[in-house]
Design goal:
By secondary structure, the protein is of the alpha/beta class. It contains seven helices and 15 strands. The radius of gyration is 21 Å and the shape is globular. The relative contact order is 0.06.
C-alpha cells in the first residue's frame, strides 16, 4: 500500500511542476484523493458490496468534484490534474501513466448493458473539457486535445482535436520519437508538436528539437573520443537552468502583453 502511495506522489512530481513536497500532494491534491477513494470503492465493488461501494464513491465525488464509478478499472500512476468535473463511467478502463485534466468525461453513448465506456491505454493524455464517448480504445501514447469530442477509436501515438474528433498527427515515425525523447530530456512537453500542424511556432520548435538531437549526439561522440584519450572532461555536470535566470525575460514579456 505504501509503495503505491509513494508511486502516486512521484507521478505528481513528474507531471506537475507546481508540486513542491510530498505533504502538499497528500493534503492538497483532490485528484490523488479521488484515486485513493476509488481504490476503496473499487475493492468494495469487487467484493459484491455494491451499495456501500456507490456510497463511498459518492462521498469521493462530494469531496473532490470527481466522479469515478467503483466499477471502473484504473491502472498505476494515474494522474488527475485539477480534476473538477471529471466523470468516469462504470465500464471505463484506464491503463498506466494516464493523465486527465479538468472537465473530462469518459462516458457512454447507449443504455445497453455490457461495455459502454472507453478504454485508455498506457500513457494517454486527455486535455481539459474533452469528451471520450463509447466502447472503443484510445491507443497507447495518444493525446486528446482540450474540448475535443471523440466517438471513434484512436490509434496509438495519435493526436485528436475538434468536434467531432479528428486525427491531426500520428507520431509513430522515427523522427517524432527522437523529438519526443529530446523534449523529455529538456523537461519540455511537446504536446501535439508536429510538422503536419499549421502552427509555425510548432514547426520551429520541432526544428529546434531536431537540431538539439544532432548536437547531443555529436557531443556524446566527442565525449567518447576524449574518454578514450584518457580525459575526464565530460564527467563534469552541465550547468543547471534556474527559473530565476529567466525572471527578467518573463516580466518583460508580461509587460508587453499588458
Amino acid at each position: 500500500m505504501f509503495e503505491r502511495l509513494r508511486e502516486d506522489i512521484q507521478s505528481v512530481f513528474h507531471r506537475d511542476p507546481a508540486a513542491r513536497n510530498a505533504f502538499e500532494v497528500l493534503t492538497c491534491y483532490p485528484g490523488m484523493h479521488a484515486i485513493w477513494i476509488h481504490r476503496l470503492s473499487g475493492a468494495l465493488w469487487g467484493m459484491g458490496w455494491k451499495w456501500l461501494a456507490r456510497l463511498v464513491s459518492n462521498f469521493g465525488r462530494w469531496l473532490t468534484g470527481i466522479e469515478i464509478h467503483p466499477g471502473a478499472k484504473v491502472g498505476r500512476r494515474f494522474f488527475i490534474d485539477h480534476g473538477m468535473g471529471i466523470v468516469i463511467g462504470e465500464t471505463a478502463e484506464i491503463g498506466d501513466d494516464v493523465t486527465l485534466y479538468q472537465g473530462v468525461t469518459l462516458g457512454g453513448t447507449s443504455w445497453n448493458k455490457g461495455k459502454r465506456h472507453p478504454t485508455l491505454e498506457d500513457g494517454v493524455v486527455v486535455g481539459a473539457g474533452a469528451k471520450v464517448l463509447g466502447p472503443f480504445t484510445v491507443g497507447a501514447g495518444a493525446k486528446v486535445g482540450s474540448n475535443a469530442v471523440v466517438t471513434k477509436a484512436v490509434p496509438a501515438g495519435a493526436t485528436v482535436v475538434g468536434i467531432p474528433g479528428r486525427i491531426i498527427v500520428k507520431s509513430d515515425d522515427e523522427q517524432q520519437a527522437k523529438r519526443k525523447a529530446m523534449a523529455e530530456k529538456l523537461g519540455f512537453d511537446a504536446y501535439g508538436v508536429s510538422e503536419d500542424m499549421p502552427d509555425p511556432v510548432a514547426r520551429a520548435i520541432g526544428q529546434l528539437l531536431d537540431h538539439l538531437q544532432a548536437v547531443d549526439g555529436r557531443l556524446e561522440g566527442m565525449c567518447g573520443a576524449l574518454k578514450d584519450l584518457g580525459s575526464n572532461y565530460c564527467a563534469k555536470d552541465l550547468p543547471v537552468l534556474r527559473d530565476e535566470d529567466f525572471a527578467g525575460v518573463k516580466d518583460k514579456d508580461d509587460s508587453q502583453v499588458g
